[in-house]
Design goal:
The protein is of the alpha+beta class. The protein is built from 3 helices and 7 strands.
Length: about 150
């Protein structure tokens, strides 16, 4: 079972380089948009995790394969799904499409680890988030190695 979330973003002039192409690092911003919307769609809030539980999920690994360009005013469709998860980490996968033709432009993965906000010490993921992963991606349990 693959539970994925599609999020849309219209490219602004600030997002593109002098050639009018989406600047390469902005794809990581789209990954962030995708995973934030994915967990929100599953009923979980990153904001509450940080403010109430005092936990953060910093990126520990990022990978991006560029296949085709996105340009100013294109609508990007960011497809987000869980690749793997464990008690302390989660790895999301991404596919980014240009909406009008659903042309695949980018694939990638980002892994996040869990830290306490107060002292940046490793921590387990919050129980509520683990329940989300267990429900949405039970077959993805276990850490994927690079």
């Amino acid at each position: 079972m693959v539970v994925y979330q599609d999020s849309e973003y219209r490219l602004l002039y600030r997002d593109v380089d002098q050639m009018g192409v989406l600047y390469y690092s902005r794809y990581l911003d789209l990954f962030e948009l995708g995973r934030t919307e994915w967990v929100r769609d599953q009923g979980f809030s990153y904001r509450d995790m940080e403010e109430v539980l005092g936990l953060m999920l910093p990126v520990t690994h990022a990978h991006c394969d560029y296949l085709s360009s996105l340009r100013f005013d294109d609508i990007a469709v960011v497809r987000t799904f869980v690749v793997a998860w464990s008690a302390a980490t989660v790895r999301y996968g991404y596919e980014i499409y240009e909406k009008s033709e659903m042309r695949l432009c980018v694939t990638g993965e980002v892994e996040l680890g869990c830290l306490t906000k107060a002292d940046s010490k490793p921590s387990l993921l919050p129980k509520a988030l683990l329940e989300v992963f267990q429900s949405a991606a039970p077959d993805k349990k276990g850490r994927k190695r690079n």
